[in-house]
Amino acid sequence: LAGVQARRHHYVLLAALDEVGSASQAELSRRTTIDRSDMVATVNELAERGLVQRAPDPTDRRRNVVTLTDAGHRHLRKLDTLLAKVQDDLLAPLSPDEREQLVHLLTRVVDHHARP
Amino acid sequence: LAGVQARRHHYVLLAALDEVGSASQAELSRRTTIDRSDMVATVNELAERGLVQRAPDPTDRRRNVVTLTDAGHRHLRKLDTLLAKVQDDLLAPLSPDEREQLVHLLTRVVDHHARP
DNA sequence: CTAATTTCAGTTCAACTGATATAA
DNA sequence: CTTATATCAGTTAAACTGAAATTA
User: Angle at CA B33, nearest 5°, toward B76 and B5?
Assistant: First the structure.
């Protein structure tokens, strides 16, 4: 990630926005591992690069609505292919079947501990 | 770990010493994820609590030989049971067979990327 | 001489705490 | 009034960089 001037928080936020469309910063904190205190800086960094847009929510003036821009979508796709390659290297010793098993087992562990 | 005044580095070093007997700080760095720059403080912290002993190597005066004390062995056993409980909670959704599968797959991934 | 070992000072990323101002 | 949101200042743990002194 550092090789393309990205950090984990950047990817996590872009991916969350891709799933959810747009959301307030607090909502994005809840959906990710990014603390609300760190969300400010993360959104700042991505907004400076034009990857997300931050706008006040007209229906609730406490909130900022964060939205993925077209450039943000493109950047996310780039990071996705990059990370797919990294994952491929990581899982090199496993067959396709075994990779599927591993992902399945890990997914069940994560789901079991997910917030309700 | 924080609940028993321990950090990951403490456990990692105690466990490495339990495997290898005693070793120089540089050797312990190579065998763990603890950087040589951080090894000094880690050994300091464990030595202050009497869990390891640091002594100059008579056969190579550059080296410090680090050894697990009896108290260190006891502390390690305590951490082992603590972490076994944590792992049990983590893997709660998986059957014994599935846990074994998961450990096996992860072990193969780790082994494949281990330093030669 | 080169190379290895220990140590120090400092940086970075991520997770977190606690507080404040504003608005619902 | 209480609660939610965004923000700020600061802390912690771990991984790391670069350099120095000592010794093999």
Answer: 40
Residues 68-87 of chain A within 7 A of strand D, judged by CB, are: none
Measured distance CA(A58)–CA(B26) in Å, rounded? 59
Could A90 and B109 be called an inter-chain contact, meaning their C-beta atoms sit closer than 8 Å? yes
CA A67, CA A54: separation in Å to the nearest integer? 7
Q: pTM above the 0.90 mark?
A: yes
pLDDT value at A115 more than 80: no
Nucleotide nearest to B32 (CA to C1'): D15
Instruction: Order the strands of the B22-24 sheet from edge to edge.
Output: B22-24, B64-68, B52-56
C-alpha A15/C-alpha A12 separation (Å) is: 5
For B24, the enclosing helix (H) or strand (E) is strand B22-24
Calpha distance B113→B92 (Å, rounded): 28
